[in-house]
Recover the amino acids of this structure.
């Protein structure tokens, strides 16, 4: 896996956790919001393994509700206390990383 | 209602994950969630070809690490292999055709047990390539017939070409060990709560047991073959009728819930 792919994988976990922290939501809506925020390299199938991973780590919980329109059942996600504390850590690290990387990349631009 | 392409994608993903031994409840949850996603996307007119064109193995890899294996999967594989071994030995002992030979050992390893895994592997490949289609059913049907043919051919070869006979028990020894193994296996199946296995091994042994009951100890007697053949036919028909009744009941209950 390339460096940029690994970076995207980690960031997607944080981004999805951040979206779920804003309120109960489901897969398609999460993807819609990510696209609306112009989150890069996001595809239809990519969020579900992440949701599974976050559930497994206990950062989010889910429940399934029957559709009113006769469609398939829908799985809704909410953040847990562990998820909130993980998100707080992610935000803090992202803040530091973001400013550090911006500083570093500016000097890389000078090299070019 | 999903498009055929979407249904095909979901089916192939399910098969890939099931063959990796992943827990069925988890697979159902993933399928349900993807079904909801695709239904919503198709209703909104979104293009989901990127998802549907994702290679199944690649997509299954992303889930695979997060999914647990079916509880006790290795235990069940152990049960199946032991059961197949027992199935290859007990009926032979009961009709006095058992002799421990090199060809029997090779037959059990490569044909009896090997064919199970080879067939499963082939069925998976076919299902992943053609999904739920006529060609899949045709190939699976042909493979089953060929496998059955190989079994019969090997049975004849076994009788005439033992290669190296290691032990040839007498008729009485064969019967006593056979009946003891049958009883022990059935009791063991009940203890490990696999009563279907107990039922199957009894059904397989029943033609030889009833044949022996009617003609005494003479296995060369034509009546033995006749009686055991009649019992096999009765059991086969009983099995087919049970399956049909079950199918009819399920269909009836599905119709009533709709």
């Amino acid at each position: 896996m390339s460096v940029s792919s690994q970076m995207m994988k980690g960031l997607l976990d944080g981004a999805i956790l951040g979206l779920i922290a804003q309120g109960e939501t489901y897969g398609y809506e999460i993807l819609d919001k990510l696209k609306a925020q112009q989150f890069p390299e996001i595809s239809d199938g990519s969020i579900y393994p992440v949701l599974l991973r976050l559930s497994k780590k206990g950062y989010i919980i889910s429940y399934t509700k029957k559709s009113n329109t006769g469609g398939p059942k829908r799985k809704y996600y909410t953040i847990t206390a562990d998820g909130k504390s993980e998100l707080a850590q992610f935000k803090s690290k992202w803040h530091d990383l973001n400013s550090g990387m911006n500083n570093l990349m500016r000097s890389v631009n000078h090299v070019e | 209602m999903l498009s055929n392409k979407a249904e095909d994608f979901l089916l192939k993903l399910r098969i890939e994950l099931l063959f990796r031994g992943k827990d069925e409840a988890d697979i159902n949850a993933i399928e349900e969630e993807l079904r909801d996603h695709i239904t919503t996307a198709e209703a909104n007119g979104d293009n989901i070809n990127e998802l549907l064109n994702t290679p199944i193995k690649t997509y299954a890899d992303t889930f695979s690490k997060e999914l647990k294996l079916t509880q006790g999967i290795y235990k069940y594989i152990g049960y199946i292999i032991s059961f197949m071994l027992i199935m290859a030995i007990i009926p032979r002992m009961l009709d006095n055709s058992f002799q421990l030979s090199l060809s029997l050992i090779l037959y059990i390893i490569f044909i009896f047990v090997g064919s199970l895994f080879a067939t499963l592997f082939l069925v998976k490949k076919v299902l992943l390539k053609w999904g739920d289609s006529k060609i899949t059913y045709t190939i699976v049907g042909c493979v089953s017939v060929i496998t059955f043919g190989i079994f019969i051919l090997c049975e004849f070869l076994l009788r005439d070409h033992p290669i190296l006979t290691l032990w040839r028990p007498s008729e009485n020894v064969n019967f006593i060990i056979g009946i003891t193994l049958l009883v022990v296996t059935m009791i063991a199946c009940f203890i490990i709560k696999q009563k279907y296995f107990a039922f199957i091994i009894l059904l397989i042994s029943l033609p030889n047991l009833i044949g022996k009951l009617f003609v005494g100890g003479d296995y060369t007697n034509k009546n033995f073959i006749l009686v055991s053949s009649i019992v096999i036919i009765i059991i086969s028909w009983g099995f087919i009728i049970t399956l049909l009744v079950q199918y009819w009941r399920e269909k009836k209950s599905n119709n009533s819930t709709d």
User: Anything to note?
Assistant: Residues 14 and 90 of chain A are 6 Å apart (CA to CA). Chain A touches chain B at residues 26-28, 31, 43-46, 48-49, 51-53, 56, 64, 67, 71-75 (CB under 8 Å). The domain at 3-111 of chain A is CATH 1.10.10.10 (Arc Repressor Mutant, subunit A).
